[in-house]
Structure formats: C-alpha cells, structure tokens
Amino acid sequence: MRLKVMFAYLLVSLAFTSCKKVTSGTNSAESNEIPHVEDGVLDVRGIDVSHFQGVIPWDTLATRLQFAFCKATEGETYVDPSFQANWGHIKTAGLYRGAYHFYRSDDDPEAQANFFIQTVGALGSNDLPLVLDVEAEGLAQPPSDTTLQRDIFLFLEVLEANTGKRPIIYTSTNFANRYLTNVKFGKYPLWIASYQEDKPNVPEAWKNTSWDFWQKTDHYTVADEAFDFDVFKGNPAALKVFVEND
Predict the structure, then answer these.
(1) Rounded to 5 degrees, what are φ and ψ at 148?
(2) What are the sequence ranges of the domains in the chain?
(3) CB count in 10 Å sphere of residue 17
(4) CATH architecture of the region 2-18+41-245
(5) Which of 135, 151, 212, 218 is catalytic?
(6) Per-residue b/e over 176-192, b at no fewer than 16 CB within 10 Å?
(7) Phi/psi class of residue 26: alpha, beta or left (left: φ > 0; alpha: ψ in -120 to 50)?
(8) pTM to 2 decimals?
(9) Which of 48, 50, 4, 47 is nearest to 27 (CA)?
(10) By C-alpha distance, which of 145, 195, 179, 191 is closest to 28?
(11) C-alpha to C-alpha distances, 119 to 46, 113, 183, 213, nearest whole angstrom
C-alpha cells in the first residue's frame, strides 16, 4: 500500500523468531529475525504485496506464511499490473488470499466498488473478504468528514452486497481517528497499520471490537525484496473460521 511502498528494498531475512509489523513510523534497524511478537497466539503470519515487489518467491513464502494480500485496483480504472499473477500464485501456494483496493476520494465510490468487484471476480472458499485501503494519500483534497464517511460507507455496502462478506478496512490509527470517526465503522474487520509497537494502537471507532489483522513492519525481506509483514489475531483455526464465516 502507498504508505509502505516507499520503504521497499530494505533487507531483513526470513528467520522465524518473531512476527511483527509496525507502527506509525518505520523500523530502521536491520535484523536477521522477523520482528518479535510477544503474544504467542499471534503466529499466523502473512504479507501484502503489489507490483512494486516484482517477481515474488511464492514457493518459499508458502512454507512460512498462512495468508497474503495483494493489490487489485485503485480508483475507477487502475489495475495493479501484477494482480492477476499474484492472485493466482497465492492460490497455488495454498495460502488464504485477499485483494485490496486503494481508495481515491475524488472518484465515485460506487464506481470504484464495482470496478474492484469485477476485477477480482467471484471469491472462493479460501478467499478473505475484499479490503478497502483508505489512507491520506488517497485524498485529493481535504474532504469534509461527512462526505468522506458517507462515500466510504457506500463503497463498503456495495462490496458486501455483491460478495456476501463484510469487507475489511485497512487504515492507520491517525487517519482513522481523523476521518473514520463514526462508530459504525467498528462493525467492519480492521486491518491496522501500526509500526514499532508491542501491540496495535486501535482507532476509537474500533475500541469495542478491536483489530483482526495487524500490519507490523515493512521490513520483511525475501530474495532481496521487502514486504509488508502482517499477523492475524488468532490461531490457524480462528483464521479458517474468519474466512468461512465473515
């Protein structure tokens, strides 16, 4: 996603000692370990990717991860050049897979949602709910809170009506506390970008529901490519239930 892509190409190898993605900044220290996760439950690991990562070693990653997200679309017309390849490779690797859409506030929300749905196609039994990636770089100009929240709710409603799964919202705490203040956002699964912290800093709208995925760092490196590293809040059985029942 945009707020992480700029950190690509930093080196950190794949040894398993921990799991951590990050906070509101970036982890500058290089290491031979995956950043540590104190809670032993948080051992369900994943990455998120786009065309910026180039050719991805899915065979290697499949032995160390349980899920992966890949960028599908942006705005009303842009398809990530690597989406179809990544989407297929994630399935072949046997991972749970998810697709995300980078939201543009200056584009029509319903048109964006339909474009996203059409690009991804029907979801399979091992597919995560579709993801709305909403962050500051997607704002053409500072919108009114009322307009932005109204449009995002419309986008989410179109996704849910067409897929039968409640969409996941990817965002940062600062952005959510500025723009996603309606408590009704809390009914949607949260994928929170929260770096350099021992636990995610959950936005106010999700205080009663917490988070489901945590993007902990952008320093997870395989074959000289840096990935955003994520964990799921639960064990493998819980992730299976999440995918099947959400």
Answers:
(1) -60, -45
(2) 2-18+41-245
(3) 11
(4) Alpha-Beta Barrel (3.20)
(5) 135
(6) beebbeeeebbebbbbb
(7) beta
(8) 0.83
(9) 4
(10) 195
(11) 22, 10, 30, 23
Our answer to whether residue 212 is catalytic in this structure is no
Alpha carbon distances (Å) from 206 to 20, 53, 179, 221, 246 = 21, 31, 13, 31, 17
Collect all residues with Cβ–Cβ distance below 8 Å to 133 and sequence separation of at least 6. 1, 2, 71, 100, 101, 102, 103, 170, 171
Asked if the model's pLDDT at residue 73 lies above 60, the reply is: yes
Rg (CA), the chain: 17
Query: Mean pLDDT over all residues of the chain?
Result: 83
SS3 2: helix
Cα 64 from chain centroid?
18
Give the C-alpha separation, 98 to 87, whole Å. Answer: 8
SS3 track for 141-197? CCCCHHHHHHHHHHHHHHHHHHHCCCCEEEEEHHHHHHHCCCHHHHHCCEEEECCCC
Is residue 107 among the annotated active site residues? no
Query: Which of 34-43, 208-217, 232-241 has the weakest average pLDDT?
Result: 34-43
| H or E stretch covering 115 | helix 109-120
Reported as a single tens digit per residue, the pLDDT across 3-32 is 443 333 333 333 333 333 333 333 333 333
Which residues lie below 8 Å from residue 216, measured CB to CB, with a gap of 6+? 19, 20, 21, 22, 35, 37, 194, 195, 229, 230, 231
